[in-house]
Design goal:
Blueprint (H helix, E strand, L loop, with lengths): L1 E5 L4 E7 L5 E8 L2 H12 L9 E3 L5 H9 L3 E3 L2 H6 L12 H15 L11 H34 L1 H9 L2 H10 L11 H10 L8 H10 L9 H35 L3 H4 L7 H17 L3 H8 L4 E5 L2 E5 L6 H14 L4 H12 L4 H22 L25
Parallel strand pairs: 4-5
Antiparallel strand pairs: 1-2, 2-3, 6-7
Helix pairs in contact: 5-6, 5-10, 5-12, 6-7, 6-9, 8-9, 10-12, 12-14, 13-16, 14-16, 15-16
């Protein structure tokens, strides 16, 4: 039996097809608990869930999670790829929910052996993935909030912006909370500012006279808002930045605790310059690939650190692989870039790539490929990383990478 699932926000459409391409069952289900329960029970009447893979035009969401939890392998189909195949079912490219579920089932029937499948991932890996992704989202939010705070200061108190860029982040936020506008800082002296910074552990090396001179030499604001309103705007933005920073610290504590108990952590924890957060990112993003990859080359390709070749007739091009997991690529590239500062082996691979006129991002991806081979060996053998066992620090001669473009 072959299943096709056309998903949407409010309703979904499911088609069941036999080996001959004949539709033997089809129904529409609402996006409710009752709809999912009845649909999963109805699918079980057609066979064991493990033998009924379901193609769907997404890689995540409630429908995917419920199908995986029920034991169905999920086959994610890219919407653009599915759209490009529509002419095989008619030149008009007509589209209906029922028609799409039928076409997905037929696509599975004819090409299912070529399509990758999603399987259930370890619960601890999913937890780490969620924690690290939320931390990354909050870091982006913090950057946006800090930029907005800098814009407010530039408009309403340029002197405060100068000190904000000079002091440590914690001290700068505390300073703006205490002195949010130029009027509040009018009576501030060099001695009082230096003592205030000293009480908060300022280690920037600037004396109070230097700091107060920077504060006083900044141009005056030409804001048309009253000072109480400007003060309120700056204080609210400072509180927003502090709140986001607090959530980031809380997420990092949760990540550290989750990493310490994860079964994959000992395999990679001894790698050079791999911190707790980066280790969690690698486990959360690359761990699912390790669980389902058939070989090391598939792992490297899905992680996105190997280029893609396009050749036809006399034309051949090698380019950057855009169709990859970006978060996984960022996690392994961050580790690879850090590792070259502590590992002679990693440094040699990176420097050799630079000597071949590769740019820094390209050389980092070349090094990341080598590290993924090491990680695959650790995963395959169930052994923790050891420079002696894995012949690091110049003792191995990895296969020379061809001079590729990405």
């Amino acid at each position: 039996m072959y299943i096709g699932w056309d998903w949407a926000t409010d309703t979904h459409d499911v088609t069941v097809m036999d080996d001959t391409g004949k539709r033997i069952d089809r129904w529409e289900l609402p996006h409710t608990e009752e709809g999912f329960t009845k649909t999963l029970a109805r699918l079980r009447k057609h066979g064991d869930p493990a033998d009924l893979p379901v193609p769907i035009e997404t890689t995540r969401g409630l429908a995917v999670d419920r199908l995986l939890a029920a034991g169905h392998p999920v086959i994610p189909v890219h919407p653009n790829a599915f759209h490009a195949m529509r002419p095989r079912w008619g030149a008009s490219k007509a589209k209906t929910d029922a028609g799409d579920s039928m076409k997905l089932a037929d696509y599975l029937r004819t090409d299912g052996h070529l399509l990758p499948r999603l399987g259930p991932t370890e619960q601890a890996t999913l937890d780490l993935q969620a924690l690290t992704r939320q931390r990354a989202d909050h870091i982006h939010a913090r950057v946006a909030a800090v930029n907005q705070l800098a814009a407010l200061l530039d408009e309403h108190w340029p002197g405060g912006k100068v000190l904000f860029s000079t002091l440590d982040s914690d001290i700068a936020l505390a300073f703006l909370e205490r002195y949010p506008t130029s009027g509040w800082a009018a009576k501030l002296t060099a001695g009082r500012l230096e003592a205030w910074c000293k009480r908060r552990g300022y280690s920037g090396g600037k004396t109070g006279s230097v700091l107060i001179e920077r504060l006083r030499s900044a141009p005056a604001a030409a804001s048309r808002l009253s000072e109480p309103v400007a003060r309120q705007l700056i204080l609210m933005q400072v509180q927003l930045v502090q709140g986001i920073r607090a959530t980031i610290r809380a997420s990092e504590k949760a990540i550290t605790a989750a990493v310490e108990t994860h079964p994959y952590a000992p395999l990679f924890a001894t790698m050079p310059r791999i911190g707790k957060v980066n280790l969690a990112q690698i486990i959360g993003e690359i761990g699912p690939f390790l669980e389902r990859a058939q070989n090391c080359e598939q792992l490297i390709a899905e992680t996105g650190v190997v280029p893609v070749t396009r050749a036809s007739g006399k034309t051949r091009s090698v380019g950057f692989r855009f169709a990859a997991n970006r978060r996984a690529r960022l996690a392994i590239a961050t580790f690879a870039d850090n590792s070259r500062h502590s590992s002679d082996w990693a440094s040699k691979i990176y420097n050799d790539a630079r000597d071949r006129k590769k740019r820094h991002p390209h050389a980092t991806r070349i090094l990341a490929r080598s590290w993924l081979r090491v990680m695959w060996a650790c995963w395959r053998d169930g052994t923790c990383y050891d420079p002696e066992i894995h012949q690091a620090n110049g003792k191995i001669k990895p296969a020379a990478d061809e001079p590729l473009a990405a």
